[in-house]
Write a structure and sequence with these properties.
This protein has three helices and nine strands; from the N terminus they run ααβββββββββα. By secondary structure, it is an alpha+beta fold. Residues 31-38 and 69-86 have low confidence and may be disordered.
Length: 236
């Protein structure tokens, strides 16, 4: 009986040793199931806000550039005009506010040619304003385009009445009319109505604007009236 008990003890010890050896080998050679490794979540990407592309501003046309470069004139001021009995003096100065009808020309560049002699014993009754071909011609005051006329002497011309119909402004030797200019249309002071040229009897290459002002009692007879000197009205 004691022998059996001794063998049982030996067998138990052997089994225990075998178990320990097996556990040690499993640890050494990683035969046991490993612990799960925690998955690392990627950091969320920072939101990227879409930046709109800057809008492209279209380039202005040549006419728009010219209009932007031309200073905005003061509004026309028309008061009671002098009678036609003394229109030869400077009594109109201070009663009307006009701008120089050629873009870029300054008052000190004007020359008084009103009384200059012309062919066939005529007097000029106007002033000439030299400028490069194609320079914009501006409405000297607010008013209405009365007549677009092709003249032997004046070439391509415009007759414009003042807002009160008492004055006729005459533009001659024009290269061409501005787009959209037609008879009967209303124009604002400083609006481009034509371009400087050398048509009519100006002489080839003698680019200038022939400009005159006439006092009229009947705007329907725009070609008649008493001429007054534009120079003191523009040279102020």
């Amino acid at each position: 009986m004691r022998r059996v008990a001794g063998w049982l003890i030996v067998v138990g010890v052997v089994i225990l040793l075998a178990t320990v050896v097996a556990w040690w080998l499993a640890r050494r050679y990683k035969l046991l199931p490993s612990q799960p490794v925690a998955q690392i979540e990627p950091l969320p990407a920072a939101p990227v806000s879409a930046v709109p592309a800057p809008a492209l501003t279209p380039l202005p046309s040549i006419e728009e550039a010219i209009e932007e470069a031309t200073p905005t004139p003061e509004p026309t001021v028309l008061t009671e005009l002098p009678s036609t009995s003394n229109v030869g003096d400077n009594s109109f100065v201070g009663t009307i506010n006009l701008i120089i009808p050629v873009a870029g020309v300054r008052p000190n560049q004007l020359v008084d040619t009103f009384d200059d002699a012309r062919s066939e014993g005529r007097v000029h009754d106007a002033i000439d304003i030299p400028a490069a071909a194609g320079t914009p011609v501006l409405a000297v005051a607010e008013g209405q385009i009365v007549k677009l006329f092709q003249s032997e002497r004046g070439g391509t011309t415009i007759y414009q009445s003042s807002a009160d119909k008492k004055l006729i402004f005459y533009y001659a030797h024009l290269q061409q009319y501005a787009p959209g200019v037609v008879e009967g249309m209303l124009v604002k002071q400083g609006q481009v109505i034509a371009y400087v040229g050398d048509t009519g009897n100006a002489g080839a290459g003698n680019y200038h604007l022939h400009f005159s002002i006439a006092v009229t009692s009947d705007p329907k007879r725009y070609w008649e009236g008493t001429n007054i000197n534009p120079y003191p009205l523009l040279h102020h």
